[in-house]
Amino acid sequence: MKKYVLGVDIGGTKTATGIISTGGRLERKLVVPTLADMGLDRSLDQVYRAVEGLLKGSRIDMKKIEGIGVCAPGPLDPFKGIVHNPPNLPGWKDVPLVSLIRKKFRKRTKLENDANAAGMAEVIWGAARGYKHVFYVTVSTGIGTAIIINGRIFHGKNGMAGEAGHATINYDGEDAECNCGNTGCIEALASGSYTVKRLLKKLKKNPGIKTDIIDTAGGEADKVTMATLGKAARKGDKLALETISEQGRLLGIWLGSMINILDPEIIVIGGGVSLLGNLLFGEIRRSLLSHTINIYAAKTPVVRAKLKKDVGIFGAASIFM
Fold this sequence. Notes:
By secondary structure, the protein is α/β, with parallel strands linked by helices. It has helices at residues 40-57, 97-105, 114-125, 186-190, 192-205, 213-216, 226-234, 238-262, 278-289, 311-318, and strands at residues 4-10, 14-21, 26-33, 65-72, 76-77, 82-83, 109-113, 134-139, 143-149, 152-153, 266-270, 302-304.
C-alpha cells in the first residue's frame, strides 16, 4: 500500500501544507496566511485549518498517512516538540506544538527547525542526493543552516545546533548589528535584507552614485530587493554588480571557516538569494578558497538548491523519511 506523509511548514507570513508520497511526489498542497500578528490562538488555528482543508480536499485516506511532519522557525526543541518564542511568531512562547497537533489529528507528529528540515529534504530529494556529509545554507531575509552528518541532522545537546548564520566574522562591524543581539554575524552582513539595507544607506549617503537600481524597482527605494539587484546587475549596473560581489565575498569568507570545521562533501545554498546564480556563486567560490586551510576545498561542490518554492513542505515531510 502506498504511503504518504503530511508536511506542515509554518512561517511568519504563510503556512504551507502538503501531502507527499514516500517516493517524493507532492500530491496536493494548500497554503494559508499564518496571521502571526494576531497572536498564538489565531495563528495556531490557521495551522489547524490548513491541515483540515488539505485533508478535506484530498482523496487520500487518512489511514495511508504515516504521520505529520512540522517545520517552524527556531528556537525550538525537536526532541520535546516545543517551539520557544520565534521572533516572527508573536506569542509562540514554549508552545508544545507536537502534542497539540497529535491530539488534534491523532497522528504521529514530529517537529524540526525549518532550515534543518530543508537541508534534509535536499539530501533525500534534492541537490545533495547521494551525499552523507552536507552543509546546507538558506540565504534570504536571514541566513539559516543545517549540518547533516552521516545522513542525519546534527542537533547538538539541546537540539539547537546548526545556527551558523549567527557565527561572527566581524565582531566590531559598525554597520552589522544583527537581530539576534550580536554584532558581525554573517546574517547581519550577507543576508538579502541586510545587503539591501546597507546598499540603500550607501545611496542615501552618496546620492550622486550613478546606478539604475532604484529605477529597476519602479522608482521606489523601499521596493528594492535582491531580485532587483539581480536584474540591474544583468544589465551591467556597476553598483549592483559590486554589491552582489561583496555579498559573495563575505559568504565565501564564512563558508571557508565552515569547511575548516565540518569538511563537508557538498555545500548546498538555497533561499531567494540563491536565484542570483553565478553572479553570486562565482564570487563565493573564489572567496571561499582564499579563506580555508582544507586542501580538498577546491573539490567541494558549492551548488544551488534543487527544491525551491515547496522546500518547506518537503522539509517537513522529510522528518519521517
